[in-house]
Amino acid sequence: MTQPIEDYALIGDLMTSALVGRDGSIDWLCLPRFDSAACFASLLGDKENGHWRIAPVGSPDGGRCTSRAYVDDTLVLESHWETEDGAFKVIDFMPQRDEAPDVVRVVEGISGQVAVRSTLRLRFDYGHVVPWVRRSDGDRVAVAGPDSAWLRSVPSVRTWGVGNSTRSEFTVGPGERVAFILTWHPSHEPRPEPCDPFEALEQSLADWREWSGRCRYDGPYREAVIRSLITLKALTYAPTGGICAAATTSLPEEIGGVRNWDYRYCWLRDSTLTLDALLATGYLEEARAWRRWLLRAVAGDPADLQIMYGIAGERRIPETDLPWLRGYAGSAPVRIGNAAVDQLQLDVYGEVLDSLFLARTNGLPTELHSWRIQLALLDFLERNWHRPDEGLWEVRGPRRHFTHSKVMAWVAADRAVRTLERDPSMPGEVERWRTMRDAVHREVCENAYDRERGTFTQYYGSRELDAATLLIPRVGFLPPDDPRVIGTVDAVRAELGSSGLVRRYSTEGASVDGLPGDEGAFLACSFWLADALHLTGREKEARDLFEKLLAVRSDVGLLAEEYDPVAGRQLGNFPQAFSHIGLVNTALVLSGESLSA
Q1: Taking a C-beta distance cutoff of 8 angstroms, is the pair 482, 476 a contact?
Q2: Prior bond of 388 cis (ω within 30°)
Q3: Which of 370, 474, 458, 479 is nearest to 416 (CA)?
Q4: What is the CA radius of gyration of the chain?
Q5: How many of the other CB atoms lie within 10 Å of CB of 529?
Q6: Over the stretch 414-459, which tens digit does the pLDDT of each residue have?
Q7: Which of 358, 452, 457, 518 has the fewest other C-beta atoms within 10 Å?
Q8: How far is CA 271 from the centre of its chain?
Q9: Cα distance between residue 327 and residue 42, in whole Å
């Protein structure tokens, strides 16, 4: 039985992550990195594609815990089970990594005497490879090709193999604890030093509490902001500072549809909004790390700038299908890699320059090589901004002159002008960039604005709308009180509105994205609408929408990419960084603390 996407919770160690369902099953885990092959892939298939469930003996498939929550401001998850025989809880977490990745699951009795079962099915290579499992000094070791994983328990409990799975059963009473530790390492290397699960638990709680305590936002939405910041931190690949767009691949934008993509990579489109969120809430080191990742990723020939990169800055992200996985709720194909990496999206040049401008004006020191990279990007954009592209939403239809792409070309020139005006000693031709900025602005206002309807459209000559035009006042292309801005906000809300939330664009008829099917309301765009309502003076409407969006979060405060307001369920990859960035930034906008508003 497929669990709703929002029934999963995230745990992770800042290099990879896992999804734990309300039924006590870990159904998604990639090792050793976010973008590695999954060893638990039942999220996109069935049990035989790998999972690890801990639940009361006799609990049926689909049986759910009584309640669950993260411990305070941490990424340590507690799931409580109440049965006729008593109660217990499972504490799930991944300690920050010393040598090897560990998944730790601590079962602790609360009342009575409860029989508990652990069922582990390891399936390497996205649920495709059944490992050979053997005993070793009382533990279990599973090996297949390059992968090896050890399972041990503290204290040791009876464990046996059945049906290509590893099963354990035991009884816990009040205060009794049994910990399971699953440790991965390359099969050609010796076994890592085992961790103490109970010491690791205390250290993980302390690490996350210390990190959360650094948040300087103290407004009315602090709980939601901290949970979103923790989620962003959990999606960060610590060695490089890159932030994954999501922990998963191929969770569908439409149940049963084909709009299923791999989001375990880093998108340049997220960069400015991510920096805004991190800088405004006091996470300067994370902001520095993200900027360093950004500069490493974009270094090179400006013509080769990509819209996304791997978590270490990798450029090659070939897309392929996994035919042995049926897809979440039958939503096929399951894809790994992302062919959109080869698209031309001119907006990313503006997003890079806007990010670095924001960092520079908010205390991160400028490096001369960084400015030279920006000048090279500007030189390329000056010669190419007239071209059509695939646009922000990575459409797989024809290239067009997307309004958002042109607006972000204006942003690139504008940030260069403002940089040189602030510091004339820096190299650059300020008049050259002023000329470009004025030309882009003039062309957008002439070709992308529908005077009859009083709104900016999705692309030149189009009657379709695009929620990305809600960013026009935020980036400074036009002031919030300009009638063209107000008209655009009203038109987007009226034509792309979905039960009070907002879709990215219309997918009806001959859709601009070249794909069949539909999708839900896009949560990041809905946060942009709240920002735009606030900026145009409609404070109450902005807060009402924000409260509505907070109610969409799961019981543990997580958001996917999209939401189906009719079915009342989340859609798309999960948890989605773009959605959580939107939440943080809208909370800052409503509190008057946003850096780029």
Answers
A1: no
A2: no
A3: 370
A4: 25
A5: 25
A6: 999 999 999 898 889 999 999 999 999 999 999 999 999 999 999 9
A7: 452
A8: 13
A9: 9
Total-model pTM = 0.96
Residues present in the chain in total: 597
Q: What is the pLDDT of residues 223-253, one digit of tens each?
A: 999 999 999 999 999 999 999 999 999 999 9
- Please check the confidence at residue 576 and state whether its pLDDT lies above 90: yes
- Give just the sign of the alpha carbon dihedral 509, 512, 518, 521: negative
Give Cβ neighbours of residue 134 (< 8 Å, ≥ 6 apart). 140, 141
Task: Kindly list the distances between the CA atom of residue 89 and the CA atoms of 55, 117, 199, 201, 359, in Å, as whole numbers in the listed order.
Answer: 9, 13, 18, 14, 44
User: What token pair was written down for 464?
Assistant: 């379709």
Measured CA distances, 383 to 376, 377, 404, 409, 418 (Å): 11, 10, 18, 11, 20
| 62 half-sphere exposure, CB direction, 13 A CA radius | 4
> In terms of pLDDT, which residue wins out, 61 or 37?
37
Query: Are 116 and 88 in contact, with CB atoms under 8 Å apart?
Result: yes
Model confidence over 329-371: pLDDT tens digits? 999 999 999 999 999 999 999 999 999 999 888 878 777 788 8
Taking residue 238's Cβ as centre, other Cβ atoms within 10 Å add up to: 14
Tokens of 384: 């190419």
User: Can you say how many angstroms the Cα of residue 377 is from the centroid of all Cα atoms in its chain?
Assistant: 27
Contacts (Cβ under 8 Å, ≥6 apart) of 520: 253, 254, 498, 503, 562, 563, 564, 565, 571, 572
Rounded CA separation 44/50 (Å): 10
- C-alpha 508/C-alpha 488 separation (Å) is 20
User: Which two three-digit tokens encode residue 583?
Assistant: 């939440």
Backbone angles phi, psi at 56, to 5 degrees: -60, 145
Check: CB of residue 100 under 8 Å from CB of residue 192.
yes
Q: How confident is the model at residue 585 (pLDDT cuts 50, 70, 90)?
A: very high
Closest C-alpha among 548, 515, 517 to residue 530: 548
CA distance linking residue 324 with residue 593, whole number of Å: 48
In 536-569, alpha helices (H): 539-552
Q: What does DSSP assign to residue 509?
A: S
